[in-house]
Amino acid sequence: SSTAAGSAEAAMRWGGSAGTSHRTAGTWLMLLSHFVFTELPESWADMQEPLLEGMCFTLKYLGMTLVEKPKGEDMAAAAIRRIVATARVGARKFQKVILTVSPRGISLQDADTKEMVENISIYRISYCTTDKLQNKVFAYVAQSQESGALECHAFLSPKKKIAQAVTLTVAQAFQMALDLWEAANAGR
């Protein structure tokens, strides 16, 4: 089985969209250099075709909290602790969502109603992790399109391996987005 060493993180320059002139290959390489893994599954590189369409995971949405930094293991761990503590206090049922990861980003769909909850561009995501202590929790940090604030969103998976798989899939989505970006800009 594959494990994420600590956390998988990506540092990105904020603003703009895919293909804008200020987004450089160096920014993408910096983003990818922050992903750290001890072991990748043998079939990881063969998953490109399904990932282009989007890899789906059924998770429970725990909640969101604002954060001050776009990346960092300690920041993410503290944010996840806040989200989990708040979730435990509330007596509400967690929203079951289908989280789809692709080179375009992450989309969230309500698992029951099939209503689209949110679409997060790959360019707005700055960090993702499987928490060390809450190892069934997957979280990502993204810049809100509306307010520009940094938000940490956390999700509960049924198993530790699923949370790790989501993290690895987001890492692969970043790599594919880089490959697509480089191919599109090769002729310039």
Automatic annotation (TrEMBL):
Residues 54-179 form the PID domain. PROSITE patterns: PID (PS01179). It comes from the Eukaryota. Pfam families: PID (PF00640). This is ARH protein. It comes from Chauna torquata (Southern screamer).
